[in-house]
Amino acid sequence: MKKLLVSLLMILMVFSVFAVKITIWTSEAQAPILTKLGDEFKSIYGIDVEVVQVNFNDIKSKFLTAAPAGEGADIIVGAHDWVGELAANGLIEPIPVLPEKDKYLPTPLKAFTYNGKLYGIPYAFDGPALIYNKDYVENPPKTFDELIKVAKQIQEEYEGEVRGLVYDFKNFYFSSYAIFGFGGYVFGEKDGKINVKDIGLANEGAVKGLSLIKRLVDEGLLESGDNYNVMDNMFKDGQAAMIINGPWAVPGWKEAGIDFGVAPIPELEPGVKPKPFFGAQGFMVNAKSPNKLYAIEFLTKFISTKDVMYRIYLADPRVPSRKDVLPMVDDVTKAFAEFLGNYGLPMPNVPEMAGVWGAMGDALSKVLDQGIPVEQALKEAVDTILAGIK
Amino acid sequence: MIRFWKFIGYVFLALFNAFSIWGALFLFSRGFYELSITFFVLVFLIDYFIFSKGAYPYRYMIPAVILLFILVLYPIAFTIKTAFTNYGTGHIMTRQEVIDRLLTDPVYTYVPDEGKNYIYEIFVRYEGINPTGDFKMLVYDENGEKYVVGNIKPIRMQAGKMILGEAHLIPLEKYEVMKENGKIITIMDGDKTYNYFYSPVDKETAINEVFFKSKIAFPILSKVEIVNNRRERLSLRFSNDGTLKLVEIKHLYRMALSEVVENGKTVAKATLINDLTNRPLLEEDGTFYDFDENGDKVPILGYISYLGGENFTKIFTDPTISGPFTKIFLWNFTYAALSVVFTFAIGLIFALVLNNNTLKGRTLYRTLLIIPWAIPAFISVLIWKNGFFNETYGVLNRFVVNGLFNKESIKWMTNPFWAKVSVLIVNTWLGFPYMMTVSLGALQSIPEELYEAASIDGASKSKRFWKITFPLLMTTIAPLLVGSFAFNFNNFVNIYLLTSGGPAIPNTSTPAGATDILISYTYKLAFEAGRGQDFGFASAISILIFFIVAGISFVNFRISGSFEEVNR
Description:
Chain B: It is found in: Cell membrane. The structure holds two protein chains of two kinds. Chain A is α/β, with parallel strands linked by helices. Helices cover 45% and strands 19% of the residues of chain A. In chain A, strands 1, 2, 3, 4, 7, 14, 15 and 16 form an eight-stranded mixed beta sheet that branches. By secondary structure, chain B is an alpha+beta fold. Chain B starts with a helix and ends with a helix. Classes of the chains: A alpha/beta, B alpha+beta.
């Protein structure tokens, strides 16, 4: 029996030595270009690259199921906020050396860093900015007071047919700009290390930020039925003058024939800059894959080069994370890059972030729908997050 | 002929047994004990059913038994086992696996500061003019002495693949070599000849780099640690310029005896020790911790460990969990009960109407009424949420409440009462066609004569319904109502997609919402709070919910059983 097992293993080993292939799991936006790039890599290195298209929302959960058993893709393409959970589970491999590291914007790199190690190669990042329809807004507002004035004017002028400002304001992701702009923060940081017990979501700044969003509701700009789909459809139909959304939706607006502009989210108060959350996208390597080194070679020698990064941008137009690719992109992307690159905050990538979304969503709905005082709602959110972590 | 088929049958059985037992042994060796035991018991039962005369009738149950074991009993056993562990984010490997990785994985190695670079050359065997993957590696040590890397023996395997191997250096003198201008160009081993092929410092061989990397370096050499005569370990690593260098490496962690304090006593125990700091790792709550330069503990890897009843006691003693528990339980009960009542009442009314022989176009109505059942719940719930209940743009508020009645918008999703109403409306919409269908079937089985006799006796229409139709209907439908109750008690999809449990309940520090039922509340606790996934806790909760549902169903069956008295 044992002999049989051993000989079976030998056969498997021989096969594994000769069948060399890197598998990549990616979502539909990058799958075609990565397939093409994989073919080019094969022609240089003789290593097969298989690109498997997986629904973006399923990549992490599928990987979490497969990787512990030593299976699953060698490389996954995903968001930086997966890093904490995957690294805590020991499933992704740090990138030992990233060539031309100084050519990258610092924030996307930081987004993929966990416990001081780089766990992924960022190729793009995205986050919300102010999008305006040029038919209604000539010059984008510079401050929030101005924004409220302009929005109200439009609403009066078009007698309720066109909304001045619509966005998914009860979603913590889209409303984070105000909370962080005034000095709120999710987790405190000391010496580059995240302290999950230090939560700044109920401090003075967070209260001020959430009060600002409440003001938008009280002034009659935001309606309780607003959500992402409502915003997206209204903007495409020309029924919304200004929205807050990210670069992923750009193709849709172009298709709908909207003459739009991208501007920074206005200053919260004169001199107070908004700081929205943003997410970075990148390549991560399976720590239990037997092909780790190929995967790393594929990423560092090939994917991370300027030329390839530009080609990925052309296929999937998000804001590139390499500085030297930025001058080559179109104006819309540049506008996003300028705002997010300067003021954006990467979402914390620690696993403890899992409890923040629900708690803050509840806090926003308590304040904005149920009229519960801002301080109380935020305090309850912080208590909820802390209760989950301990 | 029969004998022949019998023989074939036994051959198949033997094959089946051999395969299953091999599989069970394989699973056992990999640590999947429950699944392995499941296989063993299954094989034993099947053989018993076939060979024992007395168990003859059970033969026909074999397919069901297989499914029962694999799809029902094993998951139950696994859930129970998981409920007593900390399985979840940061704890997904076994302890042995974590130790193995810390000891052998290249991630947990480092290149010492005084570590030396070694020059290496690769010699490959040619077949005709084509190079093969069969190679010899020549290593120069710092004195210029030459060694050849000997046979590779695997140290760690995973899924049939070598993860880590080890090889020793053999002095070059043991081999026959051929030199040209003082440079070795071939190495002979037995009757095999290896030709000089690649060296990272030799520009002339750069053309062979791709072949070397793809056929030799990555698949084989990158997984091998070469031990020299000073017991130093050499391995290929990426250097800062991206080339592969052969460098001396050290393992960050080693297993050694050290003194640790355990239960107040100092004992000597085999522990993992950080090679750089010489401090033993701390093992706490199923996680290995190392210490950074400030002495703060840094979690490295966690493993699945047994917690005992901690997950269960947490449910009752942790105020952040048990706080809104009663509130949610009561609503859950109301929600399930009202869903059953509404769906049954509406379904029955439609069934009675459709059962009327004088109604024209019955097939058409029936088809239309079954549509809610035919559309996947996922889709219709989202349509209800976005299309009907949206507070500003939904059809109900915009055209009915504002437009028709000129009233202020109803806060469907943000007012606790209306949120509950909307959840019930959608659940009734989704559920009534099922009740209608079963009622229609049950109505067919009530004999016409009973009604004839009753009408001759002068019973009114309503009397006929309450005295004949309803009791007879209940005998067939009551068990289905119990089933429907149990289903709605755990109807996660409807709640989660429609309101996600919201609106949030104020004055609590738990993720509880007004429309949360137990299963959606615990989903939030187990997967959307804290550190993400907590399978152990989720399993504990599902066992608890099982007991609640089982208890309620038992009582319900007792009550519904009383209807059967009518039939006797």
